[in-house]
Amino acid sequence: ERMMKDWSSPVYGFFEEPTVDRVDGRRAHVFKCSGHGCKASIRRFIDMKDAGSTGNMHKHVRACWGADALHAANSAKDIDEVHNKIMRSFHRNGKITTVFEHKTNRKATYANILHTRSEIRCSLMKTGRPTYYIPSAMTVLRDVKVMFAQTRQRIAKMLMDHDGRLSFTTDAWTSPNHHVFVAFVVHFVQEGMLMSFPLDMVKVPKVSSPELIQYIVYLM
Predict the structure, then answer these.
(1) First to last CA, the chain
(2) What pLDDT digit, counting tens, does each position of 88-126 carry?
(3) DSSP 98
(4) Residue 16 and residue 30: Cα distance in Å, rounded?
(5) How many whole angstroms separate alpha carbon 181 and alpha carbon 169?
(6) Rounded Cα–Cα distance for residues 116 and 81 (Å)
(7) What is the arrangement of strands in the sheet containing 26-32, beginning at the earlier edge strand?
(8) pLDDT tens digits, residue range 172-200?
(9) By C-alpha distance, which of 79, 107, 83 is closest to 95?
(10) InterPro entries recorded for this chain (predicted)?
């Protein structure tokens, strides 16, 4: 803390509060960069004559944040202004090309190309899980058909083995695009719990009379 009172250079605003590390029995201050995604640290040995030098800090800030940020920091009145105003401004208004130019000496180039449909599908489904395997549409279709067939057989066996009453309900409605559907649901009590399973949903030409509904139920 005594040494920190002499650290008045605005460049300190780009680094987190230092920690003390020991290397071969020698104590050193370690300054970690506050840049987003930057893992660089500056180490200064306390027993050196240039223990208060900020030369390496200036070099890193110029490479990591850019010359404009360093120039703005040198014009700041104190460390708080660098941390609260300059750093936030460069985080908010920075350009992606500037980030690449900081890492290399070459001019940054890029291409603005829209993602394809398959790339959009994979990027959304694999967000946060880049190693996940995304099956093809045909694989998903095949698996859904297999699951449907197995589930239908299981429900059919459950209904045939059920020792009790089965109640059937039906409902008919017209979709917004003027298609008529009739749905069938079975209800029963098993081990004290009410069970309900949709059996089928049939598209019909029209629903005009109870006789037509009765005929559809008979076919079911």
Answers:
(1) 84
(2) 666 544 555 655 554 555 666 767 777 676 666 666 677
(3) H
(4) 9
(5) 14
(6) 45
(7) 19-23, 26-32, 41-45
(8) 888 888 888 888 899 999 888 999 998 88
(9) 107
(10) ZnF_BED_domain_contain
Distance (Å, whole) CA 93 – CA 114:
24
Distance CA 36, CA 39 (A): 9
By the 10 Å C-beta count (0-12 exposed, 13-18 middle, 19+ buried), 27 is classed as exposed
Among 107, 11, 4, 10, residue whose Cα is nearest residue 59: 11
Cβ atoms within 10 Å of 138's Cβ, excluding its own: 8
- φ, ψ of residue 11 to 5 degrees: the values are -65, -25
Distance CA 73, CA 65 (A): 11
The pLDDT value given to residue 199: 87
Sheet of 167-174: strand order equals 167-174, 180-190, 193-204
Give CA–CA dist 213/170, Å, rounded. 9
Q: What is the pTM of this model?
A: 0.37
Q: Which backbone phi and psi does 167 adopt, to 5 degrees?
A: -110, 135
Question: Taking a C-beta distance cutoff of 8 angstroms, is the pair 189, 208 a contact?
Answer: no
Residue 182 vs residues 129, 162, 177, 217: alpha-carbon distances, Å: 41, 25, 15, 10
The single-letter DSSP state of residue 48 is S
